[in-house]
Design brief:
There is one protein chain. The chain is mainly alpha-helical. It has a domain of about 90 residues. The protein has 5 helices and 2 strands. Strands 1-2 form a two-stranded antiparallel sheet. Helix 1 runs parallel beside helix 4 and helix 3 runs antiparallel to helix 4. It is rod-shaped.
């Protein structure tokens, strides 16, 4: 139970940036990862309790204590990064607000040719342009 619990905790932590951060339902609040971490912690706790209750049958007092301490540390760093660290991203005071006229800019199109905002707005038949800003973690 010790190793299975520790493995669940590790899978719960590393599956967030590798898999679950791709989906909006699990990116904003990592509920699947928290379930995996809680299940792993329960299994790890049961394994440590069993190792201390019956040390002659279940050896693992030392390894169980080390795994439990390591699991607590990495879960603490994970929770700090998800719930506290992500809130420390500074606000972008210079970004355009909704309804505000955007400054002229140049970006490459799908062929790599530079396109400016004014050239898109001045082309025939275009009534305007829609700018979409994605929140991301790049």
């Amino acid at each position: 139970m010790l190793w299975a619990g520790f493995a669940l905790v590790v899978v719960g932590i590393f599956s967030y940036p590798l898999f679950f951060a791709r989906f909006a339902i699990t990116r904003d609040f990592p509920w699947v990862n928290l379930i995996l971490i809680v299940l792993g912690a329960l299994s790890l706790g049961a394994g440590v309790a069993r190792a201390f209750r019956q040390p002659d049958k279940f050896r693992g007092k030392i390894s169980g204590s080390i795994l439990a301490t390591l699991a607590v540390l990495i879960v603490g760093f994970f929770l700090e990064g998800i719930f506290l660290g992500s809130r420390q991203i500074p606000a972008s005071h210079g970004a355009p607000k909704v309804g505000e006229i955007a400054p002229d800019f140049t970006l490459p199109d799908s062929q790599g040719n530079p396109v400016t905002l004014t050239s898109v707005l001045n082309s025939g038949g275009t009534a305007g342009a829609v700018l979409i800003f994605y929140r991301g973690y790049w």
